[in-house]
Amino acid sequence: MKTYTYLITILLALTFTTTLKAQTEAQAIEMLKLVNDLRTRTGRGVVFLNDKLNTAARNHSIDMANNNYFEHEGLNGSSFSERIRATGYSGGPRGENIAAGSSSIEDTFNQWLNSGGHLQNMLNANVNEMGIGYGFNTSADYRHYWTQVFAQNNTLSVDEIQDDNPLSFVTYPNPIHDVLYIKSSKSITNLNYKLYNVTGQLINHGILNNTNGRFKIPTENLSKGLYILELNKSTIKKLIKN
């Protein structure tokens, strides 16, 4: 459970391009952990942050704050689905939660937790990606405005989640088939790895030996789906098995 909580905490720590970069990133990770802890306790799969969904959510929150309104429908008449598609997101929009009045992630999460429709969105078994956005305006009635969106994407991004290791690793192919290959930026003899499914269950682990400059993990017995690969306890990557 400790390892699972660690994985959920750092999943997709995305970079934002606004003046609220550091604050918004920390908020997104905190909300992601709360949502995934809830989903795990109730038997749902975890969701991942997506930068386009974050953009759609953030833009709506900022628009509500700047224009002092609190509605799912944008001032331009847009629905949440239209705002998501306007970012170029390729998946299917599934739901939106909005909240206002608190600067606290936990308080905002609890507002949604104690509301049937909002809770249903957070527990939707047919979503695998989430976006979270925050807007603030001292002149607005509620000052703090939040938007949370959910979607289903069959082509989840396969980028790196975290890398605190001075070594860098390249994994290929991704999506994976029968064998996953790993190359290191420096010559090393052994490589520790752990492979988790999206619910945090440890699927496989061990120590790999360097063979002709690369490491390999047999994956022919893996079911189709999304996996999390941890290398040397510091590098974490998303993998898709087709």
Report strand %.
25-35%
> Count of helical segments?
6
SS class: alpha+beta
Q: Can you count the beta strands?
A: 12
Helical proportion, percent range? 25-40%
Order of helices and strands: HHEHHEHHEEEEEEEEEE
Largest sheet: 5 strands, antiparallel
With strands numbered from the N-terminus, the spatial order across the biggest sheet is 5-12-11-8-9
The value of Rg in angstroms is 19 Å
Distance between the termini: 27 Å
Report low-confidence residues grouped into runs of 5 or more. Answer: 1-6, 8-22
Mean pLDDT: 84
Coarse shape: elongated
3D architecture notes:
- This protein has 242 residues and is of the alpha+beta class.
- The protein has helices at residues 2-10, 21-41, 51-67, 80-86, 105-113, 116-122; strands at residues 48-49, 92-100, 129-136, 144-152, 160-163, 169-172, 179-184, 190-197, 202-209, 215-218, 225-231, 235-241.
- The protein has a 5-stranded antiparallel beta sheet with strand order 5-12-11-8-9, with no helix packed on it.
- β8 (190-197) and β9 (202-209) form a beta hairpin.
